[in-house]
């Protein structure tokens, strides 16, 4: 029986991400379609109950998205967390202020004493080893507020399978396949509901997925209530009822003739 692949040590992972800081900085300076698409999803699916007041980005890199978050919601306190010490060093120099802070380290239930109503994993969750997921899940469950949301951008399993064969040089120390089943496990472990699982076409068809999770213990009150109906909709419903009755009568006459 073949041996299980050896998981890289934490210091090896930190060293790897310290070496790709220039790529992250280039993405901030010149843009990246993957990041741009994820940013649109973040803006669209941020918590709907008010504006997010406390935001955490896990795997923030050099802080470009944290900066965008601050620009979008200037009253929010934004925290960026990354395992790469060099990335955090650059992020602090570029974007830190009284509302935006950066920390190096990993996410555990003890990392923060505060709660967050928006937690972001942009191309990060797939780089968390399966053995480390329970700790991350426990942290999310502990830190996420009621009606808070978790937004993820991940490569699809098909994308990673293709990259492993055709672009092995792009693979990272940890690259896990994030299927819908994995997302369901994440939701169960973090006491959240899956609000969105949407396949995106970035560089190839179906190469990324955007996921939104929400914690909502009052699901019935939030979703099962009368939908506001406009005058036009009421008029349309009335016309549909009249049309349905007329067509029903016609079908009834036709059926009776055939049944004689």
Number of helices: 10
Q: What string, H for helix and E for strand, traces the elements in order?
A: HHHEHEHEEHEHHEEHH
Q: Find the CATH superfamily of the largest domain.
A: Vaccinia Virus protein VP39
**Low-confidence blocks of residues:** none
- Tell me, what is the CATH class of the largest domain? Alpha Beta
Please provide a written account of the structure.
With 260 residues, this protein is α/β, with parallel strands linked by helices. The protein folds into two domains: 10-223, 3-Layer(aba) Sandwich (Rossmann fold), CATH 3.40.50.150; 226-260. It has ten helices and seven strands. The chain has helices at 10-19, 21-30, 33-44, 64-72, 85-95, 133-143, 157-166, 180-190, 219-223, 231-259, and strands at residues 54-58, 77-82, 100-104, 116-122, 144-155, 193-200, 208-214. Strands 3-2-1-4-5-7-6 form a seven-stranded mixed sheet, with helices on both faces.
Walk me through the topology.
Blueprint: H1 10-19, H2 21-30, H3 33-44, E1 54-58, H4 64-72, E2 77-82, H5 85-95, E3 100-104, E4 116-122, H6 133-143, E5 144-155, H7 157-166, H8 180-190, E6 193-200, E7 208-214, H9 219-223, H10 231-259
Parallel strand pairs: 1-2, 1-4, 2-3, 4-5
Antiparallel strand pairs: 5-7, 6-7
Short description:
The protein is an alpha/beta fold. Helices cover 45% and strands 19% of the residues.
Brief descriptors of the model:
elongated, 7-stranded mixed beta sheet, single chain, 260 residues, Rossmann fold, alpha/beta
């Amino acid at each position: 029986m073949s041996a299980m692949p050896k998981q890289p040590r934490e210091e090896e992972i930190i060293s790897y991400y310290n070496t790709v800081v220039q790529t992250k900085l280039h993405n901030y300076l010149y843009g990246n379609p993957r990041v741009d698409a994820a940013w649109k999803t973040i803006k669209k699916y941020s918590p709907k109950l008010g504006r997010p007041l406390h935001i955490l980005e896990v795997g923030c890199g050099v802080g470009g998205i944290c900066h965008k978050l601050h620009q979008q919601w200037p009253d929010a306190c934004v925290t960026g967390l990354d395992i790469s010490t060099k990335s955090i060093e650059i992020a602090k120099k570029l974007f830190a202020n009284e509302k935006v802070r950066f920390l190096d380290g990993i996410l555990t239930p003890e990392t923060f004493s505060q709660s967050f109503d928006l937690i972001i994993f942009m191309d990060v969750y797939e780089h968390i080893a399966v053995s480390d997921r329970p700790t991350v899940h426990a942290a999310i469950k502990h830190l996420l507020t009621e009606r808070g949301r978790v937004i993820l951008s991940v490569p699809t399993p098909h994308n990673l399978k293709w990259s492993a064969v055709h672009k092995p040089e792009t693979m990272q120390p940890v690259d896990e396949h994030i299927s819908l089943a994995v997302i369901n496990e994440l939701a169960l472990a973090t006491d959240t509901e899956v609000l969105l699982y949407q396949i995106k076409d970035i560089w190839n068809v179906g190469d990324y997925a955007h996921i939104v999770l929400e914690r909502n213990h009052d699901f019935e009150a939030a979703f099962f209530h009368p939908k506001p109906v406009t005058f036009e909709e009421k008029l349309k419903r009335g016309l549909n009822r009249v049309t349905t009755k007329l067509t029903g009568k016609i079908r009834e006459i036709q059926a009776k003739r055939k049944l004689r």
